[in-house]
Structures are given as structure tokens and as C-alpha cells.
Amino acid sequence: MELNLKDKLVLITGSTAGIGKGTAVSFLKEGAKVIINGRSDENVKATVKELSALGTVYGIAADVADKAECEKLINKVNEIGDLDVLINNTGVFTVKPFVDVTDEEWLDYYQINVMSAVRLSKAFLPKMIERNAGRIINVASEAGIKPYPELIPYGISKTSLITLSRGLAEVAKGTNVTVNSVLPGPTWTEGFGTFITDLAKENGKDLDTFIKEYFKNDQPTSLIQRFATVEEVADTIVFIASDKASAINGAAQRVEGGIIHSIL
Predict the structure, then answer these.
(1) For the whole model, what pTM was predicted?
(2) In this entry, which stretches build a coiled coil (predicted)?
(3) Which of 5, 53, 76, 156 has the least C-beta neighbours within 10 A?
(4) Cα–Cα distance between 204 and 216 in angstroms, integer?
(5) Distance CA 93, CA 91 (A)
């Protein structure tokens, strides 16, 4: 299937690892030009070097949780060219009891997970509407619909992204600009894979057994009873960014293996 993404300029925040990096790979394979972003200049440069064999890759180090750093990122993107696709992927989470989460931690969640997407969308959406072309995709989570008691601030921040996406789609109503959210579930990223592997060893179990027990006991509603791969999530994001998905707008696209136990 031809996705018509050749030479499209794509910014992916938080793309030096995990889903963000995997999404960069998928876009590059479709011929897009990709801007890698992360907080560490060293990590950004290393990722650009690693992925440059796949196509045109730029790197901009900036902490998108910081307003001034966001402005720096926006200016440098504009120097490269008109942005066609914005992927707001940056996000953090910490497993912590609700009563132990401080006010400062709540505000950090919003600056990183929500305000980064708000600021970048404010900068690039008007230009997309003016050109009558563009895509914004906010990487949310199934936790935005299915709250976890140990991840309440994270879940609320992801619910906010889902609402932001629908609201921005309404702002762009009647144009060829679409805004959607993507809701990954448990995904086997490199970092999470290491965590699960170490946890299995600590419990004296082989990895396959540990994973099966995890889904049976902790994620019984999962229909696939396994972790999604980074490629599965990334390819969904890339498809939604393509011309083939032009009628998908204001949607919350699940890629969580059926964990959310509802038909809508």
C-alpha cells in the first residue's frame, strides 16, 4: 500500500528510544524526512547517526516540558521547513500510590505529558490549517480510558491528550488537517523489556511463563494476551498520518490488544 509520505517532514518528540524511535524508523521506511527530538543532545546525535542510513534525519535536542525549550524546538523546525506531521510522543510515568504523589509531581506530569503537546500544537496547527494539509497525532494510552490505581496522574494526563486531540480536530473542521490520538497498551520496548526480564529473574521464573502469568493475572481482558511490539504501534501511527487515513479524524485509535473491555 502506498502511503504517500515521501518527503513529508515529520517531528516526533521523545524519539531517541521506545515507541518514538520505532515510529521514526517506520516513517523513514516510507520515505519521510524525520526530526528526532529528545532532552539529551548526546542521545539525539546517536539516534540520528543510527537512523541516517534509512533516509533523511535531523536532530534537535530540547526539553519539551519547558516553554523556552519548546520555543527553541519550534524555531529550529521552522528553519528546516514546513512541518507536515507532528507526533506528540513525549511522556513519563511513575508507579506510585495516589496519596504519595506530590503537587509538584502532578504539575510535572502536566508539563511533560500535556503542555508539551499543547505548545507544539499551538505552533504548528494554524500553519497546517492555512496550507490545508497536515497531521497531528498525540500518543496517549489505554490508561486514559482504563485507569490504573497506581498510575492515576499518568492516566489523567493521557485522558487530557485524548480530549485535546478531539478538540483540535474540531478546530480544524472542514480542512484536510486531521488530529487523532493513539492509545498503546503494554508494549515491548527495549527499556520495558529489560524491566520485565529482570523482574522474571527476581521471581525465579522463565520469561515466557512470567509474561503468561502477567496477562492472566494483571491484564485478563487483553484479547491478544501478549505485549504489542513497537512496530505494531509505530505502523498504526504512520498509517493514521498517511493520505489513506484522511477520513479518520478526532478519533482515539486503540492499539492495546483489546484490554479496554468495551465496544466503543
Answers:
(1) 0.96
(2) none
(3) 53
(4) 18
(5) 7
Q: Which amino acid is located at 54 in the chain?
A: L
**Which of 58, 109, 110, 154 does the annotation list as catalytic?**
154
The grid coordinates listed for 134 are 497536515
The domains located in the chain, with CATH, are 9-186+227-255 (3.40.50.720)
CA distance 229 to 243: 24
Q: Check residue 172 and give its pLDDT.
A: 98
> Which pLDDT score is estimated for 264?
85
Instruction: Tell me the three state secondary structure of residue 253.
Output: strand
Helices (H), the chain: 18-29, 41-51, 67-80, 103-109, 116-131, 152-171, 190-202, 207-217, 230-240
DSSP3 helix / strand / coil % (the chain, rounded to 5): 50, 15, 35
pLDDT, one tens digit per residue, over 139-155 is 999 999 999 999 999 99
Q: 10 Å Cβ neighbour count for 250?
A: 16
94-135 pLDDT tens trace: 899 999 999 999 999 999 999 999 999 999 999 999 999 999
Active site includes 154? yes
- Asked if 220 and 226 touch (Cβ cutoff 8 Å), the reply is no
Per-residue pLDDT tens over the stretch 181-197: 999 999 999 888 988 99
104 burial via Cβ count (<10 Å: 0-12, 13-18, 19+): exposed
- Nearest Cα neighbor of 62 from 112, 110, 26, 28 is 112
